[in-house]
């Protein structure tokens, strides 16, 4: 394990004790962290969203008999699952094994992940009274997640660890709809018909998300990713007026944390300019927009992450190599490029296909 740095991190209740060293490791050779800062590392960094998950046989074995949320909140199990793709693929970053609704769960919201459905909320949130009744997330409640981070710091060597949280809009969608939704009709109805209620809800969720991410930062993660699964359902106008200020609050609340901030959403090609203004250091891009065009939309000073279509991994080695080379070429338009998928690894993906992508990316020239 590398020596800890001496920097301090702003905490959930204010600045950290200036006399206490940060647990974060010094990782001067990290290609991922260099690219996230807009630098040109000696090799292209690559990791995969949802790399620790159902596509790995060792994951299925480790999680056998354990419910999803329970596995996220069992520190030694969450740490083991986080490590699995690092061992198998040699990726340039680990992402903390978690789920978007974990902060809701630890705050005390009734939520479960139902197989074949996804997150299901016991009591949907649709009125002022519902918003007022939502519990606040206390930093102590995040202890199982922070404990998993601490376990990982001693196991990851020089591989950086990315913390993780869902963005306020995506959390709100689950709360308002009561579960996954194709059209987000209740969510959009609330945001347009009751804007005061809507903003109160998202402000509450921004605070919750910030508390969740700060706990991970204080435990020692090297970067954070704010994941907005459903933001692509919005127009740019609605995103800017009704969602962006709350995501920006989360990102601004981590500005002094000393770690790169990644912001990613699915289907957000029309939102990339706004997302570039929201305050992240790296903007994740799904597969629908080429990275050179995405870089133009995002604007200067932001690195990009992405953006191989996860389905292309099923097309065979020749197609995958062609697409990876194209994406790497397009990514050179950005100040920094972290190679990734345009969304998460699909459950039936052949792990060998991911291993070949890592080997190829590491063999390609940076410039």
Structural key phrases:
11 strands; 43% helix; 7-stranded parallel beta sheet; disordered N terminus; alpha/beta; 16 helices; 367 residues
A few lines on this structure:
The protein has 367 residues and is an alpha/beta fold. It is 43% helix and 12% strand.
Overall description:
With 367 residues, the protein is α/β, with parallel strands linked by helices. 43% of the residues lie in helices and 12% in strands. The chain has 16 helices and eleven strands. A seven-stranded parallel beta sheet has the order 3-6-7-8-9-10-11. Strands 1-2 form a two-stranded antiparallel sheet. Strand 8 (261-265), helix 13 and strand 9 form a beta-alpha-beta unit. The longest helix has 25 residues, at 195-219. The protein is globular and about 55 Å long.
Fold topology:
Elements: E1 10-11, E2 14-15, H1 31-36, H2 57-63, H3 68-72, H4 75-89, E3 94-95, H5 102-107, E4 111-114, E5 118-121, H6 128-133, H7 143-153, E6 161-166, H8 168-177, H9 185-193, H10 195-219, E7 223-228, H11 236-242, H12 244-252, E8 261-265, H13 272-277, E9 282-284, H14 291-298, E10 303-308, H15 317-331, E11 337-341, H16 351-363
Parallel strand pairs: 3-6, 6-7, 7-8, 8-9, 9-10, 10-11
Antiparallel strand pairs: 1-2, 4-5
Helix pairs in contact: 2-4, 4-7, 7-10, 8-9, 8-10, 9-10, 10-12, 15-16
